[in-house]
User: What shape does this take?
Amino acid sequence: MRIAAIFLAAASLCVAPALAQPASGVQGRMTLQPERLPGMCLTLSDAGSVSMPCDGSARQFFEMPAAGAGPIRNGDKCVAPRGAGYYPQLFAETCDGSPEQTWTMNAEGELRSGAERCISVMGQASRTGTTIFGAECPREGSAHQWKVRYVDFTNVIEASLESKARPGMCIGHDTGVGLYPCSDNYGQVISLDRKAMGQMRLKSSCFSGGYAFGALGLGECWDLPQQKWVVMETGQVVNAGVQCIELVNENGRDVLRTKACKLIPEQQWVLRAPKKP
Assistant: This one.
């Protein structure tokens, strides 16, 4: 595929609307994702609410108010903070129409209850398992911002990226981001959407292009162009800045950099599904 075609394909994905329309019959199957952490979902459990990679489970599906103020429903229950203190986690409670269960979302994506609580991620951290709670709303500005998104979970996968130029070697993280013998260990399993441009997560962090000398890096997740990737049919992994991940040999050492896209084996990668235990 020529560079121009890659650019057009990547650009068309970048301008997709934030809230895709669900298929018929799944209007209640929406997720709540932090504005800067697409792909991380508000996740309920008996132990409280945390931020987890979106996985298509019922604990991550919500029905939002049709208009104005109303409950956020998870199945036949309603979302509300439980308990007092500064960081009460959210739970699915029996619906009672109370202010604690009545929510509005403003134009900035702030979710505020009738009891003046705002839904926030602890420290705005991107780590899996970070607590989500109903905090006191700030007097100025917005609390953590959210987006309501429909996700086609048939395309959300966990896989390794194996080099076409170096079969048997995969992108991973051990002492740093690099190429390692392919295995199914935690340091090589990447979460991504194989059809849509978005973050690629490894170890609860995100791949990013544009580090020193174009190095591929792994760090805190942000909703930025250099952290949005898509795997093309050609095997190229391109970001929203139209830079591709390339395997480069420098002084006898394999390094990963983001460079102008070219249809060469060093820029082609194979999705390698981890073996089931």
The longest helix spans residues 3-14.
